[in-house]
Specification:
With about 425 residues, this protein is of the alpha+beta class. The chain is built from 17 helices and six strands. The protein is flat and about 75 Å long.
Length: about 425
């Protein structure tokens, strides 16, 4: 047994004598059928886990990492079945380990991680047994094949679960020790508990809750800047450049994400995304989502909720949101809500825009022209100036766009166009 794979259960890696070459071929055939449907199986398992297990769907980035982990594990199982590879010769996939580490950093309970693996095991076996039933095997042969496959899957799940659980626990201990979770716990308490001792929090943190706040989510999309120190420096620089009343309140959520509050004292001034874009030079790969200015403990929470909504929109797969986005930006508040149900939103966009919802260059040009047309008060001249087009071209595009849509309601049209602008291919009709 390889010593490089901790937690590997003791078992006989060789096929039992009752497994004939024909049965091996049957197992490999099942592996082939699974491979043909691998993408669909991965999507199904990911959606099931995200829906049924607490805290696995808390943000799009985690769901994306969950899917990568599921894909890595399913691919490994299929590789074993198709090629008759002993489990002890395997190495855990990077995606599976990284996902476990991220859950530890987010303080997602370890039982959610373990439950995901057991749920995946049960569903995989159910799917596999369905494929075995499709083979032209006797009852005895089917039982032999099912037992072999069940043993392989069970051995793999037992091994990988032990491995990622240990990685989770090690990371959790390191994270708690390194990141000062006392302050983090108090912040989470304020966000979820109605009764808060504001004076005690100020003594411990140096941050007053009795003032105006602007909440910020800062995160990194760049491998080179995935360092909490980078986010910390960026948050403090932002506070200085935006003339905050003191140092920001900062808590790390994981290695790539920080929650920040800017203290504004008694000032009710609006902090625009343009202020950040113009005054703050962000490190490469660092992105920002802003809430609105709000006061007191309730405002502390509300501004954070708004920042989370903007961040959720910005981190969706396929999102076209800028690197600095604010809840108060045009369309962000509404689209962030619509983005929570993409199936509904995709259907609604198609119902409103008709042919303009197609994912094509011509439809994109018409959507852009009509969107600018509405934004300029339905002025052909101003639209032409903004898009650097001839006025007649604008008139032609607007007329064609209005003919292609399924409604004349300006409000619905403008909103549907904004949804397309933010979510791109996620809501467009594919050829």
């Amino acid at each position: 047994m390889s010593a490089s794979v901790p937690g590997l259960p003791l078992h006989d890696s060789q096929l039992p004598p009752s497994i004939t070459p024909e049965m091996r071929a049957a197992v490999a055939q099942v592996g082939k059928r699974l491979r043909e449907n691998e993408s669909e199986i991965v999507r199904y398992l990911t959606a099931l886990m995200a829906r049924d297990i607490d805290q696995l769907d808390v943000d799009p980035a985690l769901v994306e990492m969950l899917e990568a982990s599921v894909h890595g594990n399913v691919s490994t199982i299929l590789h074993v079945l198709s090629n008759d590879i002993p489990v002890e010769h395997l190495q855990p996939t990077t995606a599976a380990v990284e996902y476990a580490l991220r859950l530890a950093q987010r303080d997602v309970p370890s039982n959610s991680l373990v439950r995901a693996y057991h749920m995946g095991q049960n569903e995989m076996l159910r799917i596999i047994f369905g494929y075995v039933d499709e083979l032209d095997l006797s009852k005895h042969e089917s039982l032999v094949v099912m037992r072999r496959i069940s043993d392989v899957v069970s051995q793999y799940i037992e091994w990988i679960t032990l491995y990622v659980f240990q990685a989770y626990e090690d990371e959790r201990r390191r994270w708690i020790g390194a990141e000062g979770n006392v302050l983090s716990s108090r912040i989470h308490e304020i966000l979820r508990t109605p009764d808060v001792d504001a004076d005690s929090f100020e003594r411990e943190s140096g941050y007053s809750l009795d003032q105006h706040h602007v909440a910020v989510i800062m995160w990194s999309d760049d491998e080179g800047s995935r360092d909490l120190a980078v986010l910390d420096r960026a948050a403090r620089m932002m506070a200085t450049k935006l003339f905050a009343e003191g140092p920001p309140l900062i808590t790390a959520i994981d290695r790539t994400t920080a929650w920040v509050w800017l203290p504004l004292g008694r000032s009710n001034r609006i902090v625009e995304t343009s202020d950040v874009a113009q005054r703050v030079t962000l490190p490469a790969g660092v992105r920002v989502a802003l809430g609105l200015n709000a006061s007191g403990i309730a405002g502390f929470r509300r501004s954070h909720e708004q920042a989370l909504a903007a961040w959720g929109l910005a981190t969706m797969p396929g999102s076209l949101v800028a690197d600095v986005v604010g809840f108060g930006d045009r369309g962000v508040a509404v689209v962030s809500r619509l983005a929570r149900d993409l199936e509904f939103t995709r259907a609604w966009v198609h119902e409103i825009l008709g042919a303009l919802s197609e994912d094509s260059p011509n439809a994109a040009a018409l959507r852009e022209t009509l969107s600018v047309y509405f934004a300029t008060g339905e002025s052909h001249l101003h639209t032409a100036e903004k898009l650097n087009l001839h006025r007649n071209t604008v008139k032609y595009r607007v007329d064609k766009a209005m003919r292609d849509t399924r409604t004349t309601d300006r409000l619905d049209l403008a909103l549907a166009l904004t949804v397309c602008e933010f979510l791109g291919t996620e809501v467009l009709a594919q050829d």
